[in-house]
Every structure is written in C-alpha cells, then in structure tokens.
Amino acid sequence: MMPARNADRSFARAMGSPIARRRFLLSSIAAASAALVTAPSFAQPRKLPDRPIRLIVPFAAGGGVDVFARLLAEELRQKNGLTVVVENRPGANGSIGAHQTLNAEPDGTTLLFSAGTHVMAQQVMKSAPYDPIADFTSIARVGEAPMLLVASPKIAANTIAELIAEARKGQDKWTFGTSALGAPGHLAELDFNRLAGLNLLINPYRGTAPALNDVAGGHIQLLIDPVLALLPLARAKQVKGLAVTTAKRTALAPEIPTMAESGLNGMDHSSWYGVWGPKKLPADLTADLNGAINEAVRTLDGEGKLTKIGVAAVTETPPQFEAFARSYRDRNADLLKAANFQAI
Hints:
Tripartite tricarboxylate transporter substrate binding protein; 10 strands; D-Maltodextrin-Binding Protein, domain 2; disordered N terminus; 12 helices
C-alpha cells in the first residue's frame, strides 16, 4: 500500500497537467450535481388550522353552492383530518355570509365558499358593505359548471323557441327567479333577455332552492341556475329542463340541447365556485389552504364525484384565482351596463 505522503506527491504530479486538472474539475462538478439530483426532497408539511373550520355558504341549503361545499368539506376531513363545518348564512344577496368571513380573524378557521355572485357585489348593490376582492383573500377557485334554464310545468312551451314566442305575447305574465343578484344565473338571464329581445322581470331569492320551488309551483315561470341544482326536479318532471347555457351539451344531461341548438345564438355562461378567506390571511397559510383544497378537488374529480354533480374541476394558485375574479367582474359589469341594470 502506498504511504500517504507518496500518494499526495503522486496526486500533485498528476494534477500538474492542465488537461488533468480540467478533467478532475469536470468530474467533481458532475459528481456534486448527481448528488443534488439524487438527494431525497423533503416537502414541508402543510400548516393547517388545528381547530374546526367554518365554511360559510351565503345561500340556502340544497342549492348548487351548498352541494359542492359539503363535498369539499368532507374530502378535506378525510384527507387532512380537518373538522370542516358548513354553515348556511343566506340573505342580503350573499353579503350576510360574506360579512361574517370579512369580520373573522385571519387564522384560517372561517372561510367563505361562494360562486361568482360574490365578486359582483359592488355592481348589483348600491351600498355594498365591502370590496369583494380587495377586502378578502382569494384562496382557491375550485370548479365551474354549466347552467340550465328550467320552466314551470304549467306553461305550454316545451322549447326555447316556443317560450320566446309565448313570452312576446305578454311579457308582464313572465318572471325569472334568480338565486341572487349578480349570480351567474342572473347574468345569464339578463343575457337571455338581451338576445331574445325580451325584458322579463327578474326576481331575486335567497338561494336556488326557494326559487326552484316557486318555479315548480307555478308562482314564477323561469329560472337559470347550475345544472347540478336543477336537474333532479327536471328529471322528475316537476320542472321543464329546456336548454343549457354553455356552447356544448353537458355529459350530465346529454339529452338537453344548448341554447344555440334551440335557436338562441350567443349564449355561453357557466357558474363557478371558489373559496375566500378574511383579508390579511398570512401568505403561508393561504398557500397551505390552497394546496389542501386543490388536492381535495383533484381527488373528487378523479373519483367522479364532481362529474356526478355537473362540475368541471379547477385548480389554480391564489394569484391566478384573483386575476380571474377581476377579469370576470369587469366583463360582466359591461353586461349589466348594457342591460341598464340598476343596483338596489
């Protein structure tokens, strides 16, 4: 065995050559790089609230927002061991529930689950009690869904063309219901009026369920809202499902035509859903909640649970969600203006 001193001298003589030094340097860099690549990566565990989370739904139980919120709450419980309690706080166009989130401590234990309705508050309310984007933390957009126009079984029309023809004979006898002013369904109803050349009254309710009940009972004639909330009664023949509002038919009810197929071109509206927190929610907590929610949404989608309620999964970062919300608000503010909508 070569003594250590002789080995050092041999190594020094070998490194005396510029080519040898270069080869040694390159091989050392390659070895270090390989070590970095193959070294195990340890992701930091998410720091989620260790107390029960209130997931506030600002609409009545039984509607599309409520159904999705409860699916998400259960998946968060199963995946993360969280206690997530869905609380329905309807009223004042969704602002009662939103206000509870606004005034909560920014610790992740009070969150808002709502639809696009939330971001339209300042466009449909004269004295909105908050800025729905600046005064909240955008956490995650979780899904979008086609909507369905349903009609009372007491009207004679069975198609969109027949409906429009009948409504033109006496518009004062026709009323749309809507789950809330500024809701995706409300915006679709305004667009329906515009495209059909009608001016049918739109009456706001405290959520989908009471509006749908009034359509079924013949107290009002029409409603546009997410397919997932309206399809059961349409399938039961308690209301008439006439057309979906998207450019393509929905896999949940492929037998129902689109508005365009029914003779009303230009309609392409979807509902969408998101989770918000109070303003000043810490960035690291926002990111952890976003990660947990996105993971839950992917699982729900992979298991087919979202398809069953007519929802397409969406997973975005908080900045992407906020940018989408701003764009959506600005685009539909123009629709409200074109319809001469007056905030109330």
